[in-house]
UniProtKB/TrEMBL annotation:
Gene3D superfamilies: Tetratricopeptide repeat domain. NCBIfam families: PPR. GO terms for molecular function: RNA binding; zinc ion binding. Residues 997-1089 form the DYW domain. One of its GO terms (biological process) is RNA modification. The gene is LOC105032299. It comes from Elaeis guineensis var. tenera. The keyword Repeat applies. It comes from the Eukaryota. Pfam families: DYW_deaminase, E_motif, Eplus_motif, PPR, PPR_2. This is Pentatricopeptide repeat-containing protein At4g13650. PPR repeats lie at residues 144-178, 277-311, 378-412, 479-513, 580-614, 681-715, 782-816. Coiled coil: none annotated.
Length: 1089
């Protein structure tokens, strides 16, 4: 409704009424020492009208008893009159002059009333404003916009909002100032919705809005996400009207964009400003800091400093926060020095930022010193220090400060209690946590979101999951954060059922999942390997628009990667428009975990091409990929990059470097990387042990295991798996059994990884029966378990048994991998199943999606070569989609030697000599080929070639364990204490073997693996000495288990068949290629190896 004139006095008030309302002017109000500059503009305007009418003034003042004033006026000249009145008249008596003026018949103009309204506005006189309103209506000045605007301002200042609205509605012509006044009035009343509605109306009715109007509208949008669409519309109009470079609208725009996470837009607005004031810099620096872009905040502050702008306390406070968030404590200390220099230490909010900085960097003593030096504390100060102690695990100190806070008269708020609950949760002190819970309940803070979240987090971290769920049921179940906490809790327990029940319940109750809900449930799916359920959640993220959210997409990539669906993971990565370091790292880690090391390194390089610098996890994953393919040069480059990036001492990077150097056989570098890690954990020790074991430095691995034990670091399943593997690679059954006994003692014998290693140990040490016993005694088996058993059976010549195991493995829905098929193809080769072997090979890619590796191609060549299909084998090699490696050509050369095929053998040897010109095995095989074919000149040329090229053969060595002691023998060895007895026994064995048909194989003796001597010294090969010693010392019922570092020669192979027949003993020989089981005059390899 418009204002009603009837509610205001129609007749001008008399001087008496004015004196009743205000105070009567007295002589004491007219001291001449008061300067005229202290009087208002309204007094001056009135006096100018009244000057020259001294007679009338004297009469008026005389009527009301002001004789002294009359006397002053009478004594004053006309020139002094105005000065006299100006000096003496208080502002509140402006109305007195106005009444006197009207009494004398002098008419006031609009400017006079404007000045009077300004007085009312500054003094907050609602009554005065209403009186002037009445006079304005009477005189017809209500169409003057500037008077109406002042009336609106006066009503708003006095809190009479309804009068201001009526005034605004009744205006005939509204100016920009009218609209701005009303908008500001609504803003002060926090009626943001009405502000925006009025602004929209203004844009329709007012053609010339100014920056102030836009700034007020933008401030109304601050703090409420509902109004976000209006921000973009207002910004568009700002640009349209050409105000985009004005800091009046730029500053609130920067603040809005930054607070809502649109930092790039905030930066764009900031850079477009023609001139920037302190508010502009504060808004932009704070925006960077609040959005986790601490480095950008610090860079902008440096730019501000170079521009010569003196920072305000607010800027320094924001910069200190940026230093805290980026852990840039050195820079923070420099800012602290600047704070002291500029005298801002007494500012409470600056002190709070300093306390936070030093608390975060662990300098709690310095934080407490700053706290003590602060002249004033507030609740934030105490909260900051309490939070600092809580984050550093000092719960007792945090509680003491809490008590001090209460004694100082500050009431703890939700932030205080949340920090204390965090302290209790960090040390698992559920007792104190429950006491705080009681305090929260009594103080009425229990419904605060931050308190509910902290209490729930306390019970979850203290493993009180039932209590947590009970408390959760009493909370505000519309708070999605609490649902997320419970989902994480059940996820960490691996309780997929509870997680999904909770997720379903959440949807039934209408609580919308957010970008943190989906990662919680997806991580649970990943943890338990529930890919099908994870795919359903993925579908839901697509429907709700969260699939490409940076948090959700990264967890999806991680889930698909860990579940082996790398194509799906890569597809998600490709769809993300703004990939961050977490997304890239998840993909790199996924490739590395599935041994796709080349892809991992390619993705690592691709990430950097896109301008994303790797973090510690990305660097560690890339280094692990280098270790996987033993790319030592690339690993060295990434190591240098880690040093430059400041991650050289990071434990994850350090552990990856340890593993890289150990696997690549760089023992000194591995130990150096190990020493660089400041706090060595189990992963550090295990990385060194497993790396040495996998690189063939098994003795070094066992040495580190002993050092780890002495250092008091507890071994875990991974440790035992690594040292058992090291023992297996050394064929050290004695060491392996000792470790097995310790495994049982420490309770790790139920761990599947440890049992897998034990199966491999016994299989590699020739005890296939013990391996089978361990395998079938396992309560749970995975792919590695089956692979170990299948490979073991294949190596021991039990090919058909290996194939049966493979079929059982598939029946148990276990997915075979590339290792499985190496064992399967080797089994087919040993049994002579050519067609079946080829079928298995082609099924790898067609049925199982496995890309064959060089090892698989070598197995197929071995299958064809064993069957005598050498031309087929050569054609198979020529048609390989990858370049054949030395393993493939060596397999073909071995087959050619057995089948005396010189032409194909020479072709294979030629490729081998190009690939590995210094490998003695190639020369030996080629020499043997010429020897069996009777090509003596060619054999001599090969021998001469070896000498010319400086190629030396590795000396043969064989060993056997007797009564828990390993006895090693070399060719012609006479150092053993029982050497004479061994040689006498050998002579008898040879004689008996000859009697039943044994004849030395002279072809291989001419140029065998260990020496270049002919008969009669051939019988002193190391494996013969080991067998003779075993027959002399081991009881009849114990099989002989002999190990040799090189391939057994043909003569020794024939000799052992005869010896097994003569002695009636089982001889198990493991050479560099396979196991040979000699029993009753025959060998498990069917004379092909």
């Amino acid at each position: 409704m418009p204002l009603s004139p009837s509610s205001l006095p129609l007749m001008p008030p008399t001087p008496s009424s004015l004196l009743g309302s205000f105070s009567q002017p007295s002589v004491s109000l007219f001291p001449r020492v008061i300067s005229s500059q202290k009087l208002s503009a309204s007094h001056h305007r009135l006096l100018k009208l009244l000057v020259g009418r001294a007679g009338g003034l004297i009469a008026s003042f005389s009527r009301y008893g002001h004789s002294s004033v009359c006397q002053a006026l009478e004594e004053s000249s006309d020139g002094e009159l105005e000065a006299t009145l100006v000096e003496g008249m208080p502002k509140s008596d402006a109305f007195f002059l106005l009444n006197l003026m009207e009494e004398r018949g002098v008419r006031a103009d609009c400017s006079t009333y404007a000045s009077l309204l300004d007085d009312c506005l500054s003094s907050g006189s609602l009554a005065g404003a209403k009186r002037i309103h009445g006079k304005i209506l009477k005189l017809g000045f209500d169409r003057e916009s500037h008077l109406c605007n002042r009336l609106i301002d006066a009503y708003l200042a006095a809190g009479e909002f309804s009068d201001a609205v009526r005034m605004f509605d009744d205006m005939a012509h509204r100016t920009v100032a009218s609209w701005n006044s009303m908008i500001m009035g609504l803003s002060r009343r926090k009626e943001h919705h009405n502000v925006l509605a009025l602004f929209a109306r203004m844009m329709r009715e007012c053609r010339d809005p100014n920056p102030v109007a836009f700034a007020n509208a933008l401030r109304a949008c601050n703090g409420n996400n509902r109004y976000w669409p209006f921000v973009q519309q207002i910004h568009a109009k700002i640009i349209r009207y050409g105000f985009g470079c004005d800091f009046l609208v730029g500053n609130p725009l920067i603040d809005l964009y930054a607070k809502n996470g649109y930092v790039d837009l905030a930066r764009l607005v900031f850079e477009e400003l023609y001139s920037k004031d302190n508010v502009s810099w504060v808004a932009m620096v704070s925006g960077f800091s609040q959005n986790g872009l601490g480095e950008e905040a610090l860079h902008l502050y440096s730019q501000m400093h170079r521009s010569g702008i003196i920072p305000t306390p607010y800027v320094l406070s924001s910069v200190l926060s940026a230093c805290t968030k980026t852990d840039n404590f050195e820079h923070g200390k420099q800012i602290h020095a600047q704070v002291i220099k500029q005298g801002f230490s007494s500012e409470t909010f600056v002190g709070n930022a300093l306390v936070t900085l030093y608390s975060r960097c662990g300098s709690l003593r310095r934080a407490e010193e700053i706290f003590s030096d602060m002249p004033h504390h507030d609740g934030v100060t105490y909260n900051t220090l309490i939070s600092g102690h809580a984050q550093n695990g000092n719960s007792e100190n945090a509680i003491e400060i809490f008590k001090e806070m209460q004694l100082s008269g500050f009431k703890p708020d939700s932030v205080t209690i949340a920090s204390l609950l965090t302290a209790c949760a960090s040390i698992g002190d559920i007792r104190k946590g429950k006491q705080l819970h009681s305090y929260v309940f009594k103080s009425g803070l229990s419904s605060e979101y931050i308190i509910e979240g902290s209490l729930l987090d306390l019970y979850v971290k203290c493993a009180a999951i039932e209590t947590a769920h009970e408390f959760f049921n009493t909370t505000d179940r519309e708070n999605v954060v609490l649902w997320n906490v419970m989902l994480v809790a059940y996820g960490q327990m691996g309780n997929l059922g509870k997680s999904f029940d909770l997720f379903y319940e959440m949807q039934v109750e209408g609580v919308q999942p957010n970008q943190f809900t989906y990662p919680s449930i997806l991580r649970t799916c990943t943890y338990v390997g529930a890919l099908d359920l994870g795919e359903q959640i993925h579908t839901l993220t697509i429907k709700t628009g969260f699939e490409l959210n940076v948090y959700v997409s990264s967890v999806l990539i991680d889930m698909y990667s860990k579940c082996g669906q790398l194509k799906s993971a890569r597809a998600i990565l490709e769809r993300i428009t703004e990939k961050d370091v977490v997304s890239w790292t998840a993909m790199i880690a996924g490739y590395a975990q599935h041994e796709l090391y080349v892809e991992a390194l390619r993705t690592f390089e691709e990430m950097q091409i896109h301008g994303i610098q790797p973090d510690n996890i990305g660097l560690a994953s890339a280094i692990s990929a280098c270790a996987g393919i033993k790319a030592i040069e690339q690993g060295l480059q990434i190591h240098a990059q880690a040093c430059i990036s400041g991650y050289s001492t990071d434990i994850s990077v350090g552990n990856a470097l340890i593993n890289l150097y150990a696997k690549c056989g760089r023992i000194e570098e591995a130990y150096s990387a190990f020493e660089t890690v400041e706090v060595k954990d189990e992963i550090s020790w295990n990385g060194l042990i497993s790396g040495f074991a996998q690189s063939g430095h098994c003795e070094e691995a066992l040495k580190v295991f002993v050092q780890m034990d002495r250092a008091g670091v507890k071994s875990n399943s991974f440790t035992f798996g690594s040292v058992v593997s090291a023992s297996a690679n050394m064929a050290d059954i004695k060491q392996g059994k000792q470790i097995h006994a310790r495994i049982i003692k420490t309770g790790y014998d139920s761990e599947i990884e440890v049992n897998n290693a034990l199966v491999s140990l016994y299989a590699k040490c020739g005890s296939i029966e013990d391996a089978k016993m361990g395998f079938f005694g396992m309560s749970e088996r995975n792919e590695v378990s089956w692979n170990a058993m299948i490979t073991g059976c294949s190596q021991h010549g039990c090919g058909r048994e290996a194939l049966k195991l493979f079929e059982k493995m598939k029946q148990e829905d276990l997915k075979p991998n590339y290792v499985t098929f190496i064992g399967v193809l080797a089994a087919c080769s040993h049994v002579g199943l050519v067609n079946e072997g080829l079928d298995y090979f082609y099924s790898m890619s067609e049925e199982h999606g496995i890309v064959p590796r060089p090892e698989h191609y070598a197995c197929v060549v071995d299958i064809l070569g064993r069957a005598g299909q050498l031309d087929h084998a050569r054609e198979f090699i020529e048609e390989m989609p990858v370049v054949p490696d030395s393993m493939v050509w060596r397999t073909l050369l071995s087959a050619c030697t057995v089948h005396k095929n010189i032409h194909t053998g020479e072709l294979a040897a030629q490729h081998l000599l190009e690939l590995e010109p210094h490998d003695s095995a190639t020369y030996v095989l080629l020499s043997n080929l010429y020897a069996v074919a009777g090509k003596w000149n060619h054999r001599d040329q090969v021998r001469q070639m070896m000498k010319d090229r400086g190629v030396k053969k590795e000396p043969g060595r064989s060993w056997i364990e007797v009564k828990n002691e390993v006895h090693a023998f070399f060719v012609g060895d006479r150092l053993h204490p029982l050497a004479d007895m061994i040689y006498e026994f050998l002579k008898d064995l040879n004689k008996r073997a000859v009697e039943i048909g044994y004849r030395q194989d002279r072809y291989y003796l001419l140029h065998d693996i260990e020496q270049e001597q002919k008969n009669p010294t051939a019988y002193i090969h190391s494996e013969k000495l080991a067998v003779a010693f075993g027959l002399l010392t081991l009881s009849d019922e114990v099989p002989l288990r002999v190990f040799k570092n090189l391939r057994v020669c043909n003569d020794c192979h024939i000799w052992m068949k005869y010896v097994s027949r003569i002695s009636g003993r089982t001889i198990i020989l493991r050479d560099a290629y396979r196991f040979h089981h000699f029993e009753g005059g025959s060998c498990s390899c069917a004379d092909y190896w």
